[in-house]
Each structure stands twice: as structure tokens, then as C-alpha cells.
Amino acid sequence: FTGLSLVLNETVAIRYTFTAPSTEGLTIVITDDLGHTWTYGRESFVHESGNTYHVDFRKLQAKRMSDKVYATFHQGGKKTLTATYSIESYANAVLTNSAYEAYPMLRDLVSCMMKYGDAAKDYATN
Fold first, then answer.
1. Global pTM?
2. Among 50, 63, 83, 117, which is most exposed with the fewest C-beta within 10 angstroms?
């Protein structure tokens, strides 16, 4: 992995950016604490440039913004690397890192997004 971030469009997606000399036989398996599993293979990878690719994970509902997901690279059946991340991980970085102070609209958006996620979770459990 070379980067973990969010894509804020019509849905919130976790973007996994990675480098690989070849995507032949490469899969990324994403799991959550509820036991759900999603597998992304070569057909899901978006080529950026050179050996850099990304895949977007859009399967978390608003009520699950704080839930961690685990992305594991598999090369020919062999596990090579696992990254743990959540939408909240990104929000925390934006809200606590001074580098983002120059982007008040992004900070406001992320703060409101997390409040929405907390409200959705409260609504779903009551």
C-alpha cells in the first residue's frame, strides 16, 4: 500500500492505493468485524500511472463509518500485507492534523459527515 484515503462523492469510499510490478494473480480481500468479505481482483484495479493502481471500497453504510475494515493483499494465494482503516481514521487525521487547517471547508465537511454517521448508527440501533 502506498496510500489510504477517502473519496467523497455520491458515496464515501475508502481508496486503497498501491504499487505492483504486475497485477496478474493479485487480489485484495477486504473483511469487516461482522465477517463480511469482499474480494477485488485485477478487473477492479484502476491504473493511475507506472506501477501505481487503486481500488475503491464503497460497501460501508453511513452507520458504519467508525467500523474498521481490513484489506489484505493476496498474491497467488499467499497473504502479503494487511492494512486496517476506517472512515473515522481519515476524519480523525483531517480534524487533528495541523496540515489541514488551511482547508476549513474540508474540516467542516468531515465533521458533519461523522455527525451524520453517528446519528445514523443511533437511529439504526434504537
1. 0.87
2. 50
